[in-house]
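Bump. Still looking for Flagellar biosynthetic protein FlhB structure tokens.
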Amino acid sequence: MAESESGQDKTEDPTEKKKKDAREKGEIARSKELNTLAIMLAGAGALLVFGGALAQDMMDLMRLNFSLSRDVVLDQRSMGTYLLHSGQIALLAIQPVMITLLLAALIGPISLGGWLFSAGTMAPKFSRMNPGAGLKRMFSAKALTELLKALAKFFIVLFVALAVLSADIDDLLRIAHEPLDRAITHSLQVVGWSTLWMACGLIIIAAVDVPIQIWESIKKLKMTKQEIRDEHKDQEGRPEVKQRIRQLQREMSQRRMMAAVPDADVVITNPTHYAVALKYDPDKSGAPMLIAKGSDFLALKIREIATANEILLLESPALARSIYYSTELEQEIPGGLYLAVAQVLAYVYQIRQYRAGKGKRPDPLKDDLPIPPDLRRDS
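Sorry for the wait, here they are.
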């Protein structure tokens, strides 16, 4: 059983993050035997499907180059033309087979592990240049497994090849007595079927290798319980880091809140323990909004900023406590406090008119403002 460096057994299934990180590094299950099988099957199929056309193109190529006139042989410039034309014929002849092999070379790896392009796998790893590490890999269990697979592949292909040759011995001998064009076509068919049967023999190797590669990939990604806990902490955030982040967020929120106090219409106080700053925009259809609130030291700072900016301070302990506990920052006050806050704002506007010399001084605002029992806080 695999063990980590800390000595703990890797018994836990890999998490999604572990799988994702491994995939980004190119560490996924791959089977060379499956790729070899796909290429051989595709090559054999291409020879069987396109073998007739390929044989005909080869005949045309030989006719072109073995039936030259004397003038052409003695003309050096013609040799270049014939060489170029021969190359075009050869390229067009093998093009279907090469395209088939290319598709097989792409589909084979994708069939196990899916499509993946990882730049990290192309980066040079100097650890592989270490002779000691190289010797260790040569005499490892994985190297022994690869050796056994190679031997098994060799004997299977050899057995299939001997069986195919024994079965096709009459066809092979018959080729020597056939016309050239028919012999070429017949030879390609024999090669195609022989390759196909040898590829089918590799199915056994691939059928064994694919589950092994999948098992080894999963085993490599296994995790210890401590690794899972550490990953969970990294994702959720370590307690001390989260606490520091919350502290910074509170400080930033308080700075924004203090910067908003000069824009308030009124600051309602307890008078010493609580302070809430309200702002009402008549151009908007919403209710008055709480833009700052605080208790004790924060309440003192809000009052100081309000006094420095000539914001009206209004003592209403019951209303200050109700707004403080029922409303969050930058939120509208609850509907149950509309009437009480409306009386406060009306008083504020009357004070502004009086200070501007446009009216008489209003009577002091009574402290028995209409506050619903469910929103009232006595302490």
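Residues 61 and 89 are 7 Å apart (CA to CA).

Edit: fixed formatting.
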